[in-house]
Amino acid sequence: MERSWWWKALLYGCMVAVACLYLVPTVVPEQKQPDFIRRHFQKRIQLGLDLQGGLHLVYEVHVDKAVSDKVDRIASEIEDRLNKNKKMSGVTITREGRDDIIAVFKNPTEQSLIDEELLREFRRQLDLVKRDPVSGTVRLRLDPDQIEEVRDSALRQGIETIRGRVDKFGVAEPTIIRKGTDIIVELPGLKTADFERIKTIIGRTAQLEFKIVDDGAEYMRKVAAQLPKGSGIEVLPESWTEKDSGKPHEDVYLRAKSRDVLEKFFAGLIGENALPPDHEIGYEETALRNDAGEATQDRSWRTLYLKRRAVLTGEYLSNADQTWDQQTGRPEVSFEFDHQGAVLSERMTRENMGRKMAIMLDDKITSAPVIEGVISSRGRITLGSFGDPFQMQQEAKDLVAVLRSGALPAPLRKTFETQVGPTMGRDSIEKAKFSMYIGAAAVVLFMLIYYRLAGLMANVAMVVNLLFMVAILAAFEASLTLPGIAGLVLTIGMAVDANIIIYERIREELRNGKSPRSAVDAGFARAFWTVFDAHVTNFVAGVVLYSYGSGPIRGFAVTLLVGIITNLVTSYWLSRWMFELMVGRRSGAPATLSI
Amino acid sequence: MAAPKQQKFLEIIKPHSTYEFIGNQKYWIGTSIFLVVLTIIMLPLNAFVIKSRGHLLNWGVDFRGGTEMVIEFSRPVDAGELRSTLRQIGHESSDVVRYEDPSGRNKNVYMVRLGAVSVLSTTQARQAEQALAKLGEASLKKFEWSEGGDKVYLRYDKAVPTATLSSSLQAVGINANQVQPFGRLEENTYEVTLVSLDKEIWRHLDEKLGPGTVSGVPQVESVGAKAGKQLQFDGVRSLVAAILLIMVYILFRFDFRYAPGTAAALLHDAVITVGAFAITYKEFSLTTVAAILTIIGFSMNDTIVVFDRIRENAARLRDRKFDRVVNQSINETLSRTIWTSATVFFVTLAMNVFGVGVIRDFAFAMNVGVVVGTYSSIFIASPILIWLNEKYLLSQRKTTARSGREARRPKRGDELETEA
Question: Could you tell me the residue range of the domain that residue B92 belongs to?
Fold first, then answer.
């Protein structure tokens, strides 16, 4: 045997060994795994949701609505700006289609009011399409780059919002990916009972609301006094003074380890204790502080008594950023309202000076700062005064993300849904396995009978191919779907095809009177491109399939693609190496081949 | 070295066979044309003539749009009873078929297919719009709902408490999971998230058939009608893309005379596989499209084996007529063409016989496709190659006549010209 043969032996040996290692986490139950496996080879094949049950949803994001909203907002900005000019005799701003703003001036000569200066401010966003001095009409259009950006950020925010909601739900391995303007959500292993709830949670349009905290209200004191003993709810007082006037504010709030406890308590109140219809209870998650006043890891929920009607929503925000407090150097969040938002905000802050304003996202208070001054178009939110600066900065950034995503809601629309209960999958796996054994047995037997020793080698190569495939799927943590299993079975049938092509060629060479050694050489050499081309065309079809399908079909495409690559290795090179065992002996080649 | 003794192999398809493939091609091509025409006739026949079918193909819910539910019952329920109950609750056209539970444990399982995706029907929506037109002081400005949508947007001229909205919706029989304000405050718009259809069906069935009759809904699939249309379109597009890409690869690996034959053969395979679904009226779903794409990739294996041999022989046997070369090449490679397909046929047949659900449909498509794919490599791809080669030679001869000697110098890639 030549030296290179032994090197190859080592190479294939290593490949098989590594493949086996990758398979351990999938095959062996966790308690029985050796320590080093548990440390280094954690990845395993996941069962697709058609096999373990779960929820598969596809949402279409109305990106065009986000774009149209953006243009609406810019149009009203421009209108306000022009109307400030008292000398002007009048202008009507209309919207056309998704992207266009049309300004018609009463006095055509005034169309020059949309001048360089005004345009410069919107330079990044608007293009001047047409200016008609005769009729006094100016047509502006949202810049294509800007359209792309708005669409893109609507999608990204859609994904982020969904991810945040799903994470809160505690699903084990959620997959949330983007495909075109669709968002695909896969929640394998989700309990059937939770399907409806999570669909409602995901499909909800992100809603950012600003509500006023009605501190010092009689209601909270009354309710707090009736709190039953041992309910796990604490009553805590709270006070602060207004920055400028020094007017004191006093309030009580309830605190408990979980939100559920608080919600149940309020839901149980009836008659004159029931929550007034114009008020609601907001819940805020806070870090518990230890005796020294430092925040600990423990979390708790507190209540805030809110006026039900939202005074402002995220719709009025035009921008938000994480900035730094000039005096204290602490991270803070600054935001900007659009024109209408500024009007509303000014009124609200003036009327509620010294009170708290709750910023709510998805029914949860993310922060409730005290109003310290009149906020018109720009405002700042200072975060609590304690805590680790790094963590505070993170909190500030999270809040920015919340504010920004609230600014542009693009409604989601569900277009596709599959729910699978857990039992459906288990039975299917059993049946699929059985058909796999039958199919494999037929192929193995055929190869053994028809090609004898060479057939045995093809079978070995086929088994190694399966091993590699499954190991690669495990290494990529691919999920195995029902069509994916079909892909595996199919690979068994296709794996030996390359061998058949090569063997038939070798037989031909032998019939032409070649010696076994040279027949094997010629057979492998001449069949290579045939085998290679066949694999490429299969691969092309697989790639197209991958880009077409989603969910289970994708699982199938992945198995198919992985199988095509590993199969080229095993059925050609590995088989070639095994053939050396038959014809590569130094002490004379055999006179016949078992093929 | 002494010539080694002639070896014997187990051969089922004998080497040096001299079957006439090309000479009899008119019968074979005739068969293909017959099958393709049958497919084309069968599709409208399904849609318009055969009453019990009603669609071109038995589209799965992923293409058709609608909702497909598997419902388990705790007591025996008659399919007719189920259908009439569904009709009572407003689902006129429903498909109810007994569902083969993979475990065989529960015998009372049905697959129900509905056209609807949303709990709200168009007529209901219209009723709701009228009922909600005036709520106290506020009047409805806009009722926004697209068919099949799971959300309704209501716009009023004045603010309305969400609780009032919920109860008014309930009064007209619309259950909502959630009602919340939407968009800008002064727009007074509210977003209503409707209850999902499967939950509503479950509730209604329990109401009409007695509480607890429905013991579970283990599988639900729902697809918006628009998404279904999009999937059909994407399916056809990816099929065309796959064929074109493969054609380009063949163009690059062989030459232009080989490419159209492969494309025609692939199209032929795809059409006849669709035909098998049109005739049997088996469910045509996303998995079927996956199978057809796989077939397209796999069918090329045989074509490449035959073409490779043709190219090799054409260079070697320059004194033979090209169609003879092709016939000989097909004969020489017959054994591998058949056995490579046979192994795949074995495993897919096993899946077809022993598998369940999706796997079974997939396997059926593969069974048809593998047979047709092998056949097309021999009887479709090769004759087109011969025909194109003749055309090419004719045009070559014309140019030669025109431009004299120069063009006569053989160029690379002209090996096919075997009449010289």
Answer: 66-117+198-223
Nearest to A415 among B221, B224, B245 (CB): B224
Show the tokens assigned to A5. Answer: 């043969």
Closest residue to B297, CB basis, from A50, A426, A540:
A540
Q: Does the pLDDT of residue B419 top 50, yes or no?
A: no
B125, B130, B136, B140: CA torsion to nearest 10: 70
Q: Is B418 among the domain residues?
A: no
Note whether B337 and B284 are same-domain residues.
yes
Q: Which among B36, B9, B16, B14 is positioned nearest to B375, based on CA atoms?
A: B36
Q: CA distances (Å), A452 to each of A446, A457, A507, in order? A: 9, 9, 13
Distance CA B237, CA B293 (A): 11
Helices (H) and strands (E) in chain B, counts: 12, 11
Q: How far is A116 from chain B (nearest CA, A)?
A: 31
Q: Of residues B340 and B2, which shows the higher confidence score?
A: B340
B149 contacts in chain A (CB < 8 Å): 413
Nearest to A463 by CA among A433, A439, A496: A496
Report the CATH number at residue B207: 3.30.70.3220
pLDDT in tens, B288-328: 999 999 999 999 989 999 999 999 999 988 888 899 999 99
pLDDT at B407 over 80: no
Q: Which residue has the higher pLDDT, B285 or A229?
A: B285
Give residues with Cβ within 8 angstroms of A352, minimum separation 6. A212, A371
Tokens of A495: 């794996």
Phi, psi of B101 (to 5 degrees): -70, 125
Strand blocks (E) in A338-490: 357-361, 364-367, 378-382, 412-420, 479-480
The C-alpha atoms of residue B139 and residue B117 are separated, in whole angstroms, by: 29
Query: Is residue B61, in this structure, part of any structural domain at all?
Result: no
Query: pLDDT tens-digit profile of A425-476?
Result: 677 778 888 888 899 999 999 999 999 999 999 999 999 999 999 999 998 8
Is residue A414 within 8 Å of B148, Cβ to Cβ?
no
* CATH number for position B143: 3.30.1360.100
Place of tokens 């293909």: B32
B206, B210, B213, B214: CA torsion to nearest 10: 0
Q: How far is CA A52 from CA A422, A424, B33, B395, in A?
A: 5, 8, 45, 62
CA dihedral for A335, A338, A340, A343, sign (positive or negative)? positive
Residues B187 and B218 in one domain: no
Cβ-defined contact of A553 to B286 (cutoff 8 Å): yes
Range B411-415, long-range pairs (CB < 8 A, 24+ positions): B413/B255, B415/B311, B415/B314, B415/B315, B415/B318
Contact flag A450-B363 (C-beta cutoff 8 Å)? no
For an interface test with B, the pick among A58, A59, A497 (most B C-beta atoms closer than 10 Å) comes out as: A497
Q: Which residues contact A163 (CB under 8 A, 6 or more apart)?
A: A174, A176
Task: Give dist(CA A301, CA A286) in Å, integer.
Answer: 6
Minimal CA–CA distance to A458: which of B211, B340, B378?
Answer: B340
Whether B235 contacts chain A with CB within 8 A: yes
Higher local confidence (pLDDT), B146 or A143 = A143
**B409 touches B307 (CB < 8 A):** no
Nearest CA to A109 out of A136, A138, A81 is that of A136
Structural domains of chain A sorted by starting position, each given as residue range(s) with its CATH number in brackets: 3-53+424-583 (1.20.1640.10), 64-146 (3.90.1070), 208-413 (3.30.1360.200)
Total number of residues shown for chain A: 595
Residues B108 and B132 placed together within one structural domain of the fold? no
Count the neighbouring beta carbons within 10 Å of the beta carbon of residue A85.
10
Q: How far is CA B3 from CA A167, A274, A516, A522, A592, in A?
A: 74, 105, 11, 17, 12
